[in-house]
Amino acid sequence: MRRLSVGLPLVLCLGMVALLAQKKTAAPQNPAPASSQAAPAAKSALDKATLEAYVRHLFLWGPQINVAVGDPKPAPLPGFYEITVTATAGPASQQETLYVTKDGQKVVRGNVYDIASNPFQPEIDKLKTEFQPSFGAPGAPVVIAVFSDFQCSYCKQEAKVLRENLKATFPNEVRVYFKDFPIDQIHPWARPAAIAGRCIFRQNPASFWDYHDWIFEKQEEITPDNLKSKVLEFAKAKNLDDFMLGQCMDSKATEGDINQSIAEGRGLRVDSTPTLFINGRRIPGSVGWPQLRRIVEMELDYQKQHANAGEKCCELKLPTPFRN
């Protein structure tokens, strides 16, 4: 057992301890004046109003732009939430994916890649090609999705490049899917033309590409007033049921397909036409044939080693005890 020092009486030792304690707890003689206001609460990017104000300043989104901040969801980065912010002004839209620390204090803007998978896998997963107009080889290792507008002059140029070159150069390697993305604000007959195209596709899928080529060729002749009559003339020449087509156009029976395609495009950050996705790689604007050919060739070389994109199809299996 450790003993107290015998050099000082026990009472004196206790008195010194009490005095020191009193000095530590005594209030200072000149205390600082108390603040009349409480410290402001720390801002958090997990608060939607705070984050909206922040990104409006960051991206110069004025009051004329509607901003919607999504709910936080698990992010591919440990310690972060993923939040999608969508800005819209009429038919124009922009989507940003932000990563916010779980304490809400830091925001990261950028792309997150998984080294073990295709860098464009998120885009591939969002692209829906089932029951969409297409040409090229089923099961091709390269899939191109084209978001287009029938009244867009740049789309007309790109359509010609795709139709004249892809199938001839890559007969078994490429499949092309058409996705409607009419820009109503500047192209008044683009949406009715897209509705007509989908009506024709429902009636006879093979005739869609005849319509696609025809309407781009006749682009400068078409107006909002003569669109229907010209489309019905086209239908008669192709032995389509023009009465059924007229009813489909008048009732806008396929407009839901158009809206779904537009929503898909916005989710993929499509904000102009044409926009191509080549095995998920986003390529906005018109692409000349030499450049497009190089991209396809590079993608084909990549897929020979990785086989992590392209179209999976065409094998029908009978149920057996060896398969579920």
Structure description:
- The protein has 324 residues and is α+β, with helices and mostly antiparallel strands.
- The protein folds into two domains: 62 residues; 186 residues, Glutaredoxin (3-Layer(aba) Sandwich).
- Helices cover 40% and strands 17% of the residues.
- It is built from ten helices and ten strands.
- The strands form two sheets. Strands 1, 2, 3, 4 and 5 form a five-stranded antiparallel sheet that branches. A five-stranded mixed sheet has the order 6-8-7-9-10.
- A hairpin with a 5-residue loop joins strand 2 and strand 3.
- The longest helix has 18 residues.
- The termini are far apart.
Write the layout of secondary structure elements.
Layout: H1 10-25, H2 48-59, E1 66-69, E2 73-74, E3 80-89, E4 92-101, E5 107-109, H3 121-126, E6 134-136, E7 142-148, H4 153-169, E8 174-180, H5 190-203, H6 207-217, H7 227-237, H8 242-251, H9 255-267, E9 275-278, E10 281-284, H10 289-306
Helix pairs in contact: 5-6, 5-7, 7-8
Describe the structure concisely:
With 324 residues, the protein is an alpha+beta fold. The chain has ten helices and ten strands.
Percent of residues in beta strands: 15-25%
Low-confidence stretches: 1-28, 315-324
* Major beta-sheet overview: 5 strands, antiparallel
CATH architecture of the largest domain: 3-Layer(aba) Sandwich
Topology-level CATH name of the largest domain: Glutaredoxin
Shape: globular
N-to-C SSE string, H for helix and E for strand: HHEEEEEHEEHEHHHHHEEH
How many distinct folded domains?
Answer: 2
Task: Tell me how many strands there are.
Answer: 10
The CATH superfamily of the largest domain bears the name Glutaredoxin
Quaternary arrangement of the chains shown?
single chain
Percentage of residues assigned to helices? 25-40%
Task: Note the total helix count.
Answer: 10
- Rg (CA only): 32 Å
CATH level 1 name of the largest domain: Alpha Beta
